[in-house]
Amino acid sequence: MNAMAKDGLPRGAVPSAFDTEARWYDKLVGANPGYHEHLRLSARRLGLPPDGTGLRLLDAGCGTGASTAALVSVAPGAEVTAFDASGEMLAQARAKDWPEGVTFVHTPVEDLDGVSGPFDAILAAYLLRNLTEPTRQLRRLRGLLRPGGRIAVHEYSVHDSRRARWVWNAVCAGVIIPLGKVTTGDATLYRHLRRSVLEFDGIAALAGRLADAGFTDVRTASMPGWQNGIVHTVLGTNPQEHP
User: Fold this and answer.
1) Are strands 119-125 and 79-84 parallel, antiparallel or unpaired?
2) What is the pLDDT at residue 187?
3) So what EC number does this one have (predicted)?
4) pTM higher than 0.85 for the full model?
5) Are 161 and 229 in contact (CB under 8 A)?
6) The sheet that has 145-156: what strands, in order across it?
7) Smaller CB count within 10 Å for the chain: N or C?
8) What DSSP character marks residue 240?
9) Which residues in the chain come in under a pLDDT of 70?
């Protein structure tokens, strides 16, 4: 049995695992220093106009709404559509107070039922790592962007850095997995988190994946604090239509 089979979850099991953990999720991520500020930083890196009035934004894989809140914080006047494959995570998100114009849709990225473009920008936080065909789904998301629209992929990537792998393993072993076990009684999802990050793309490969999906002007930037070199923003632009 390989490590992924032992510690990881297949794509089909991921939404139900998040369903099980949904009621504790906000408490757990709240214990992560910088978690919400880092999401806001990725949202700011989209370079949206001030206020965002008239914009349509998509939060791909919104979970309990932390990434949705990041978009609202940088573009409070925008219309935001947020979707997720986990019904229980969405229920947690919907229960929060949101400005008019924020809509939640229950669908996996593979289907996108009830989600229609064009959007001016997309934030996809902690999504690609859990997909079986991430490049294909990036192409699907690009099809929802207007020409010139941008995507910000906010994701773990440690493969290219020995230091980042060491820090990630230490934090998982010493904090994330034990805290998840104590809080929820089951560490399955948190062992999956550790393994899925270790086996995901390095940052160069992730940037290449966006280029392979048809995005241009692909750029990367990391986060401050302990997640420097561990969590990154990868930005890409949907090419302008030819005249």
Assistant:
1) unpaired
2) 76
3) 2.1.1.-
4) yes
5) yes
6) 102-106, 79-84, 56-60, 119-125, 145-156, 231-237, 216-222
7) C
8) P
9) 1-25, 31, 242-243
51-72, pLDDT tens digit by residue? Answer: 999 999 999 999 999 999 999 9
How many other C-beta atoms lie within 10 A of the C-beta of residue 81?
A: 23
Task: Name the β-bridge partners of 154.
Answer: 125, 233
Pair type for strands 119-125 and 56-60: parallel
Q: 227: which 2 tokens?
A: 């997640």
Q: Which two tokens stand for residue 65?
A: 């709404």
Other Cβ atoms closer than 10 A to 137: 21
Q: What is the pLDDT of residues 67-103, one digit of tens each?
A: 999 999 999 999 999 999 999 999 999 999 999 999 9
DSSP string computed for 171-238: HIIIIIHHHHHHHHS--HHHHHHHHHHHHSPPHHHHHHHHHHTT-EEEEEEE-SGGGTTTEEEEEEEP
pLDDT at residue 17, as a whole number: 58
> Among all chains, which residue has been given the structure tokens 């349509």?
56
Torsions phi, psi of 173, nearest 5?
-70, -35
**3-state DSSP: the chain helix, strand, coil percent, rounded to 5?**
45, 20, 35
Strand partners for 60 = 83, 124
92 vs 95: CA distance, rounded Å: 5
Ramachandran class of 133: left when φ > 0, alpha when ψ lies in -120 to 50, beta otherwise:
beta
Looking only at the bridges linking them, the beta strands covering 231-237 and 145-156 are antiparallel
Please identify which residue in the block is written with the tokens 């070199």. Answer: 229
Identify the DSSP state of 122: E
pLDDT at position 181 = 85
How many helices (H) and strands (E) the chain has is answered by 10, 7
